[in-house]
Each structure stands twice: as structure tokens, then as C-alpha cells.
Amino acid sequence: MYAVVVIRYGRPMEEVAQVTPDHRAYLAGLHQRGILLASGPFEPRTGGMLLLRIPDDNPSLLEQIRNGDPFHQRGIADYELLHWAPTIGVDSLDRL
Q1: The whole model's pTM is what?
Q2: Residue 64: which domain range?
Q3: φ, ψ for residue 91 (rounded to 5)?
Q4: Number of domains in the chain
């Protein structure tokens, strides 16, 4: 199963910038585990997006990932958690 997480900043950019290194370190750990496929900020920088691969037998992992993110823990951003079932390009995603 795949998931998309839309992150929207709820605090001033000065506060976002203070937590960004911790947020990115957290995401790097998810990437090393093969969970995070891609991530990055929006332009203009109002938030960002994560593309995740979630095991079919653990759908609650998506909430756990959000809860572990320093942006969430410190009240920096709001999260929209979307389970996603791609139909075109899924072979390419599966190879990542």
C-alpha cells in the first residue's frame, strides 16, 4: 500500500526553520528503512509532501509516522494522511 502525506505549516517560517533539521533527520531514517520514497517542500514553501510505502498488514503505521515527526510533536504543522492505490505507474513505484 502507498500513502501520501500532505504537510501544511501552521507556524511562522522562523519556527519551521528551527525544527526542519530534526524533521529531515526523522525522514532520513524512514527513507533508510524503505518506508519513505520521496519528500520535499512545496513552492512557495507553505508545507510539503511525503510519498510512503506502507505494509498492507500495518495500516496504522501511517498515524505512527505522523506522530513521530518532530513537526507534529512540536505543533509546527498539520497533516493530511491519505492512503493511495495507484493504478498507473505502480510497477515503477514497486521498483523503488
Answers
A1: 0.92
A2: 2-86
A3: -60, -40
A4: 1
